[in-house]
Specification:
heterodimer, A: alpha/beta, Rossmann fold, five-stranded mixed β-sheet, 7 helices, 8 strands, B: 226 residues, mainly alpha, 0% strand
């Protein structure tokens, strides 16, 4: 379960305060996967980072009674001068996972070949995403935080991701940022729409998509 | 690799230039040894403060893991820097020994001066992470103000030869003391009476405690990019 307790997150930009969330409280129960919808710049990725705990709320708090992953996104979370394999070792250690097991798992999963032993700086964005996806799938989290990363790689890799993801969904939930309605419907049961600092929670993802489409048509 | 080449090249250039201007170094007979002892001490401070100041920006991607805190990146960088400097100094003075064999060295003051230089550098670097993050103007100003630090830190002269009152002004610079202390380990006859131990030890301890405190205090702010 993840609980947002009177959560406020604001940014000051040139003297103007912009709210991502303003005094928001609600609970995401275990067993439901959430899709985050909103226009560009609404703060979907920021909300994901807040839930992960990589950034702190302006006020209020987030209570996580679950094992939450790091946010998986395109920007990557790797040290560029280390090789892919060394980065995986690092992640295994900080999460207390068996190092060799994770290294082997990601080697099989990400199919990076020789590049696995080359510095991440030399990777394409697709290769980085494969590595990131592999690492997080190798560790058992209750919640996987996914930022627009499902459409990674070629169709073979996508099929594989989908298969592993569906396996994971037996025991885990995902919180996902996506602009693809199809992906949201595939993976999520509930939805949150972000608009002007307001978060609206829907128990049914279809209702969330409907409101989001309406928002987009309006402005 | 540049960690080794930087001091080696700087010392080589200083030696070339100054042996052209003067005939005898202020201390001993070898220009190379005089500049090496001065620059090595200065370099330990300067490289540590630069490296630590960039610790968080260099590891920003790793802050994407919630369990990794800015503090960890700073501590990691300090440990890495100590290990690097150990190897650099070993290579530098090991190599130097073949060029100008120094008679006897006293490890006590050398290690103490190195420790103070590194702690001071780490403290200044850690505070600068926060100040640079809050103000890019300050970052520019810091760069400009610190450019002459090399000149006024006693790398290529001894404070003993500087006339009053400039000598007193000069001694406000803790690096002058560190360089002096470092040199006493290589020149058994050199006294360096001006070295004020309580001043530099106090300043080093204060800077590291203050720097790490700032990192801890601004944890949330440092997690967000500028």
């Amino acid at each position: 379960m993840i609980r947002l307790d009177r959560l406020t997150k604001a940014f000051k930009l040139k003297g103007e305060t912009r709210y991502i969330a303003k005094d928001v409280s609600f609970t995401v129960p275990r067993g439901s996967s959430v899709g985050l919808l909103g226009r560009n710049g609404a703060g979907k990725s920021t909300l994901l980072r807040l839930i992960a705990g990589t950034i702190k709320p302006t006020s209020g708090r987030i209570i996580r009674l679950a094992n939450v992953s790091f946010p998986l996104g395109f920007q990557g979370s790797f040290n560029g001068s280390l090789t892919g394999e060394q980065n995986v070792r690092f992640v295994a250690r900080i999460y207390g996972h068996d190092t060799d097991e994770l290294v082997n798992y990601v080697q099989d999963f990400a199919e990076l070949g020789k590049s696995y032993y080359m510095p991440v700086n030399s990777y394409s964005s697709g290769m980085k995403a494969r590595l990131a996806f592999g690492v997080s799938m190798g560790i058992d989290f209750d919640y996987y935080l996914v930022d627009e990363i499902t459409a990674v790689g070629d169709s073979n890799f996508q099929k594989k991701c989908r298969r592993v993801f569906e396996e994971k969904l037996q025991n885990s939930d995902i919180i996902m940022v996506s602009h693809s309605n199809a992906a949201l419907k595939d993976y999520c049961t509930t939805g949150i729409v972000l608009e002007d600092g307001l978060l609206t929670y829907f128990a049914n993802i279809d209702d969330a998509i409907a409101l989001h489409d309406e928002n987009m048509a309006r402005r | 690799m540049w960690a080794v080449l930087d001091p080696v090249l700087t010392i080589a250039i200083l030696t070339l230039v100054f042996s052209g201007i003067a005939h005898v170094p202020p201390l001993g007979r070898s220009f190379t040894l005089f500049f090496a002892t001065g620059y090595a001490a200065f370099y330990m401070y300067r490289s540590t403060s630069d490296q630590v100041a960039s610790a968080i920006d260099a590891n920003r991607a790793l802050l994407n893991y919630p369990v990794v805190r800015p503090y960890d990146a700073v501590i990691g960088r300090i440990v890495l820097q100590v290990a690097t400097l150990f190897v650099v100094n070993l290579l530098l003075f090991g190599g130097l020994w073949f060029v100008v064999p120094f008679e006897q060295i006293d490890l006590g003051p050398i290690l103490l001066a190195s420790l103070i230089a590194i702690v001071l550098g780490a403290g200044v670097g850690a505070s600068n992470i926060v100040w640079f993050h809050l103000s890019s103007t300050y970052q520019q100003v810091w760069g400009i103000i610190n450019r002459p630090a090399f000149i006024i830190s006693g790398v290529f002269f001894l404070p003993d030869t500087v006339p009053h009152p400039f000598r007193e002004y000069l001694l406000w610079n803790p690096l002058v003391h560190v360089v002096g202390l470092f040199r006493t380990g290589f020149y058994p006859t050199y006294r360096a009476n001006y070295v004020d131990m309580p001043y530099i030890v106090g300043l080093a301890v204060f800077s590291i405690v203050f720097g790490l405190f700032l990192i801890w205090l601004f944890d949330a702010k440092l997690r967000e990019s500028k």
